[in-house]
Amino acid sequence: MTPKQLSATLDILNSALGFNAPADAVVSRHFRENKDLGHKDRAVIAETVFSMLRHLPQLEWIAGSTEARLASTRELLLAYFTRIKHLNVRELPSVFTDEDKERAGAMKGMALRDAPLNVRAAMPQWLVDAMLAEGQTEEQVLAMGLAMLQSAPLDIRVNSIKAKREAVAAELKAAGDINTMPTPYSPWGLRVEGKPAINKYKCFIEGRVEVQDEGSQLLGLLSGVKRGQMVTDFCAGAGGKTLLLGAMMQNTGRLYAFDVSEKRLANLKPRLARSGLSNVNPQLIASETDQKIKRLAGKMDVVLVDSPCSGMGTLRRNPDLKMRQSAASVTELNEKQRAILKSASRLVKNGGRLVYATCSFLQSENQAIVREFLASHPDFQLLDARELLAKERVEIALQDEYLQLTPAQHQTDAFFAAVLQRVSAEKAKAQEESAMLSAEDEAAE
Ligand SMILES: C[S@@+](CC[C@H](N)C(=O)[O-])C[C@H]1O[C@@H](n2cnc3c(N)ncnc32)[C@H](O)[C@@H]1O
């Protein structure tokens, strides 16, 4: 690492470790304000910052952080070079003094296997406590933590109204010698080798591809949207899922894209223009109970709730989130999740589908929200994601009726989805009675 790269890394870390803004925003701002940093400098700096954020609980332990004494950024960097990059004392950048080098020797001797679980899993204590309280074992916590230390692959989704997957793969190979592989589950996905700047390529500029994790792409299949339907993407944000749903609808029907964030919806506009979709109606709402929503009650074939969540499933990409969230922020999100799901459900017509999704592995944001909703909404039933995906010829290992993806098992972000279907209240009651009767018959036999 050159002195220039090192000094920029320290500057960025000093801001990012305040956790007042997302780390990727801090990095982008620094690069915007320091135009002298070249392409290679930027790659080295970003890689170092994100890798340090991923390993932060380990680095803090190695650098001797305690509640009473927080390690300095420089000490954390020393711990990173010594223990994560495995540099020996002679290879350390010249800014480190002889005293630092002596420290580095001591750091090398610290045995991580003797460290507390949260250090070994590189997770903050609140997250480990939450996972253990939900019944995860220490091994499961450790496996999830270690999987989140890897950097995520770059997945793109081919816009099916503009191109075919094979043609885009050939185009990227010809344009930039970029190698891709079809994603194992999504029929529209390509996993891109290396991390080329896809947004510089014609296929991106002309809307044939969008960057999208394969897990998110599977939501499209679970939604089951079809041509000509009435569909709502309730938390559309910058429209990652909206664009997918619109393409699956083959630019027909009507697709409402709601969100409470004007800024996020504004980011959807250029993506929509590139995509060639004209069936999307973006609408800013004041809250989940906005009047605009009430007018659409009972009219939707499909409603997707890609709910605001802790983002714990995306820690490979956004490692600082584990330090920016807390037990209290998750509890606050749970309130929001309940309220949004309840409101969004009112839009679904009889026989229609409601898909609830998060990019979190915490059950409190996932199964618990869905179970609570089902208990108070007998007119909704849980469909089995395994059956729905099998019908789409997707062979995927899932534990139960929920879609629950993990980086270790599926090479995607940790992603959750539950698919619910609205049945009439009478039908739900009749089904419940018949289930009770058969249970009684079985008991009698
Ligand atoms: C997980 S993000 C959505 C990402 C988006 N679907 C995509 O694929 O790019 C959650 C979104 O929910 C929005 N949101 C938060 N509170 C909301 C509410 N009460 N009603 C609707 N959307 C809300 C946030 O602004 C955020 O854009």
Automatic annotation (TrEMBL):
CDD domains: AdoMet_MTases. InterPro entries: MeTrfase_RsmB-F_NOP2_cat (IPR049560), MeTrfase_RsmB-F_NOP2_dom (IPR001678), RCMT (IPR023267), RsmB-like_ferredoxin (IPR054728), SAM-dependent_MTases_sf (IPR029063). Residues 144-423 form the SAM-dependent MTase RsmB/NOP-type domain. S-adenosyl-L-methionine binds at residues 259, 306. Coiled coil: none annotated. Belongs to the class I-like SAM-binding methyltransferase superfamily. RsmB/NOP family. This is RsmB/NOP family class I SAM-dependent RNA methyltransferase. It comes from Chitinibacter fontanus. The lineage of its organism: Bacteria, Pseudomonadati, Pseudomonadota, Betaproteobacteria, Neisseriales.
